[in-house]
Design brief:
Blueprint lengths: L6 E3 L4 E3 L4 E8 L4 E7 L2 E6 L4 E14 L6 E4 L3 E4 L4 E16 L3
Antiparallel strand pairs: 1-3, 2-3, 3-4, 4-9, 5-9, 6-7, 6-8, 6-9
Length: 105
């Protein structure tokens, strides 16, 4: 799917890590939401409330999930699941475009 239809977009950007990670929230009629964002090269740590599906549409990064000892390499066209109520670290090797879907626990 190359576009989302019938959504509401929150005007204010989500800006993290001095502007190196930004996203916009889109809300769907069914009550679900996603963020569409860009991460610049660097290392960042995120916390989660709900489980998340991260779809990498372009770019390359390494992800270290909380409690794991080995990183996962993720490139454009791949995705990964992040548990809720946890944290994860990313090392972004190339400008990375992503979609984050917030899942029900």
């Amino acid at each position: 799917m190359s576009e989302f239809e019938s959504v509401n977009v929150v005007k204010a950007a989500n800006i993290y890590f001095d502007g190196n990670v930004t996203s916009r929230t889109i809300n769907f009629a069914d009550g679900s939401s996603k963020t569409l964002g860009v991460m610049l090269p660097g290392s960042y740590e995120f916390n989660t409330d709900k489980p998340e599906l991260m779809e990498i549409t372009a770019g390359k990064l390494e992800v270290l999930l909380s409690g794991e000892s080995d990183s996962i390499s993720v490139v454009g066209g791949e995705s990964l699941n992040v548990p809720g109520k946890s944290s994860f670290k990313v090392t972004v090797h190339e400008v990375t475009d992503y979609i984050c879907s917030f899942l029900e626990s």
